[in-house]
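Here is one chain, start to finish.
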Amino acid sequence: MHQLSPYATQCLAALQQLLPNLVAFALVNALPLLAFAADVWQPLMVGRVTVQFPAAPTRINNRELVGLTATARGWIARTPEGMFFLIRTKLARPIGKQDERGRRAIYDSINTLALNSLKSRVVSSAPFTTAAGVGSEVSYRYTSRYSHKPTTFFMRNLVVDSANYFLQCVPNDPNDSLGLACAAQRRRFFDSITVKP
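Its structure:
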């Protein structure tokens, strides 16, 4: 088994605290969405990674990234269909493109933390490929502590050099337990990841 550094373990523990807070943040901030304009995609480059957001992304105040290190950075875009997050956390050391064991250890740890912190179950899990190497896409079902209804959330993780890029889509409609309302935007958001050589 691939052993994580203490710093990577600390980052993953912080993500465990962050996941429920992101879901809560999404639900609390979902109400003022009626004034958003239609389909205007905005690119955001962070490090060597570019992601297209379905609306202009805004920086998340680090105080809202509860439990993450001071070097973590987050962005959010809101649409009537959902909330789209990008969070970049630094790792203790670079993980090379060919280091499949190192990548798998990071992705498995994040998935385990998500499962445990949200008391969820995996609906689907699949790898995806970029110029920087293989990433992980996972969807989870859990019972929302706010609406008390089954909810599905979606995330992608991609390790590039010495950082993990965590993308998440949270549907706004509490009655849309499968995330169908934001499926097209989510797919475009997730598939927009590009890595500069």
